[in-house]
Structure formats: C-alpha cells, structure tokens
Amino acid sequence: MPIRFYNTLTRKKEVFQPIKEGEVGMYTCGPTVYDYAHIGNFRTFIFEDLLKRYLLHRGYKVYHIMNITDIDDKTIKRSREENTPLGQMTDKFTGHFMDDSNWLKIIPANEYPRATDSIPKMIEMIQLLLEKKYAYTDNDGSIYFNIQSYPDYGQLTNLDLNAQRTTNRIASDEYTKDDPQDFALWKGWKEEDGDVAWDAPWGKGRPGWHIECSAMSNQYLGDHFDIHCGGVDNIFPHHENEIAQSKCATDQPFANHWLHSEHLLVEGGKMSKSLGNFYQIKDLVDLGYSPENIRYQLLSGHYRTRITFSADKKHEGDRVVNRIFDLKSRLIELGAYSAAESQLPAVYNEFINKLDDDLDSPGALSLFFQWMRTQNSKFDKGIYNDRDIGESWEFLCVLESIFGIVKIDSDHIPNEVIHLAEQREEARKEENWEKADKIRDEVQSKGWIIEDLVTGYKIKKT
C-alpha cells in the first residue's frame, strides 16, 4: 500500500507523493537556543526522526533541513540577563542540543542553518513582500505583514478571517490565542537590542521569528518542497504566518504536506518547573535513562495523540528494551552473524502496512512484540532452523533502523572483527584450518575471542 500521512493543511490523510520521484525535501523547525532542550521538545524531534528513518527505509533519498533559531525575543532576553554576547550564548546551547540529539540516536539533518547566517535572504523576501503590497512599514522602522492582503490566511489553523475581527498588529514573536494579527517581519532597532541589529534598505533592525523559517527553507529547499514538520504549538501563529509570507513572496505552493506532533504530558500534566516534572535530557541521564528507553516511551504512542512521559514508566521501558536486547544477544549466540538466510519474516509486510498508515508506531511495535514472543518460544523449545535465525536478525535490524530502540552493549563488536569472523567461518567450511587459525589469532590480537558453536560461532571479549 502507498504511504499516507495526515496533512494538517487539508485535515485528512493523503497519499504521499514527493515532487521529485524518489527524493524528499523536508524542513523541521529546530530549537530556539536560549536554554537546554527538554523532553517535550524532543517528543517532536524524535517523531521527526522516526519519519525520516521510515522514509529512508522505504528507499527515499531525504534532504533534511533543521534550522537553529539563534535570534529572536527569547535569545536576546537570555543574552541580556546573562550579560553574555548573543553568539557566545547561542553557541553554547546549540552545542548542548547537538550532544543531546546524538545521545538520543537522532540522525543528523543534512544542514543546520542558523537564522543569523540567513539575514540577506530574509531581507530579500521582505523586500518582495513590500513591493507586492503584502507588507507595510511602521513609524519605528518595523515592517508588518498585512494579513488582510492574503485572503487564504487561516487555512492551516482553520480560521475564518472574515468572521473575526482582526486586532492590532503585534511585534511579539509568539502569541497564544488564535487571533489574526498583522505580524512583524522586521523589527526596527530599539535601545534594548544593543548591538543585535543588521542594516536593511528600510533601516537598521532585526528579523521577526516567522520570516526566519520561510527564508531558510527557501534558501535550502526552494519555493516548493515536500514536507514541513513541527509541534502542534507551532501551528499558530508560526506555521500559519510562514505559509502566508512564503506564498505571497514566491507565488508558489510552499510545503505540500504538514505533519505535527501532539503535546507531551509529563507525569500526567503540563510540564512545569514548579511542579517538579520538568525534565531536560541531562536530568534523565542522571536518573539512569537509556536513549532507547526514552525513544520507546515517545514512540509507543501515535505522534498525533497526547502521551504521558513518566519516571514511573522507566521500569516498564527498561523491561521492553531489555527484552529486545535479550533477543539480539540470543541471536548472536545462535550464530546470527553467519546465518545464510537474509530475508524478512512474513509479519514484516504487516509491520510496514502499519507504518504506511500515517506512521502507526504503536501498531507496528505491537506486531513486533507479538512476533518476538513467538520466536522466543521457538528458541526455548529448540524448534528452529537457520531461516528462523536469519529472518529474526533481519527483522531486528529493521526495527533498529526505523525506531532506534535496540541497545548497543558496552561490548559492541566492531565491524572489522565481525568481518574477520565471517572470513574464518568460510575458511572452516573449506577446511582451510591454517587460514582459520591465522584469522582467529588476528581477532584475538584485537581483544576478541571466537568460540565455535554447533550453529556457527560466538564472539566475545577476551
């Protein structure tokens, strides 16, 4: 069956058809680097990682852009509070975000453009909007987008612009109510901005948050691309405003598919420092979480449903992750590295059908766990063959490639050692004992031992 995603723009599931066959252009809203990212932020980032991993598994070439917001109201405020230059402060938190993402096994984006590196593109887009009469200049040198000039404003949020009275224009980057307002494309320089300013044809100032993503997506993906992602909290006003200014500037459709992940509840409620349920990744590391446990908790619920992350669920997550790892260890002991069979079990097709249906991760995981119980029962009873071992290993590898929840043990075997062990197994089958012994000694010199089994071999640390 074809891949179908729920498109926030049309409010229905649609068959995914990339603009260019076999290739996907994807833009995801990255972190605002004024603080450490928290588990709520990473619910969205890990959903996007699942999406990307699945598209890669299905054979697409994915060109992924994740922006770094290093200039906005929040970053300037934090820089001022810490009395630290803006670039120094944002560099620090960008580094922490990259470290957290790597620890959580998130596949890196192809590009991480910073807003401060794309100011010329923003000025270019704002100039176009001014020329086309979609924007106007205020007395203080700020420039605003006139939402009345764009009749389709509100499509993403399902707002009826004609049925609502627009309020005054707003300079703040963020506002929570679904009130249509003229929003700032450019903010005229104010004393509190200090040296955070750029020259533009209409005067010195800095960009508004919304124009930043439009400029960076356009710069790297062009006027029209396949997928735009983010959390539901970004639908309004950020993504609504992105669509308006991008389509008006370029006269192109912008993004075809809009995918949004729901809010994450923590300990059953909204995350808050005062409630003691505010978790940054470093907090979870201190609590003994593994990246696989966190990924399992965040992916065991559908991305479009609210889920609860809880420290009470840590033991449950550990049990699930350890059961998967036990299967991996068991398969290695049974000679999975040298198994001749490399096809996938029949259940794989059902597994893929689940994920084809708007990334039904809980449905796919449920199928995997049912299959895993059946396989373990076969191994317990000794009623298995090489095909069972090979198929199990292949399916386990697929699970890891898509979900990233299979632990790598501290004694992870290097690929070089695995390759040597496979060469030795071939030599043994050919009864080339001299070559087999030579390879065994080479493996041992690298700190590993090959133990011969009836079903193949086992590699372990010396």
Task: Describe the protein.
β3, α1 and β4 form a beta-alpha-beta unit. α1 (39-57) crosses α12, α5 (209-221) packs across α6 and α8 packs across α9 (314-333). The strands form five sheets. This protein has a four-stranded parallel β-sheet. The mean pLDDT is 91. The chain has 462 residues and is an alpha/beta fold. The chain contains 14 helices and 14 strands. The chain has helices spanning 39-57, 73-82, 86-103, 119-131, 209-221, 235-250, 281-286, 291-299, 314-333, 347-356, 361-381, 386-403, 415-429, 433-445; strands at 4-7, 12-15, 23-28, 61-66, 135-137, 143-145, 183-188, 205-207, 224-231, 254-261, 264-266, 307-309, 448-453, 456-461. It folds into three domains: 19-261, Rossmann fold, CATH 3.40.50; 281-403, no CATH class; 415-461.
Structural class: alpha/beta
User: Beta-sheet strand percentage?
Assistant: 5-15%
Mean pLDDT comes to 91
CATH topology of the largest domain: Rossmann fold
Q: Radius of gyration over alpha carbons?
A: 26 Å
Q: Cα distance, first to last residue? A: 48 Å
Helix content: 40-55%
Which architecture of the largest domain would the CATH scheme give at its second level?
3-Layer(aba) Sandwich
The CATH class name of the largest domain reads Alpha Beta
Biggest pleated sheet: 4 strands, parallel
If helices are DSSP runs of H or I spanning 4 or more residues, what is the number of helices? Answer: 14
Task: State the domain count.
Answer: 3
Number of distinct beta strands = 14
Order of strands, main sheet, comes to 4-3-9-10
CATH homologous superfamily classification of the largest domain:
HUPs
Instruction: Give the overall form.
Output: elongated
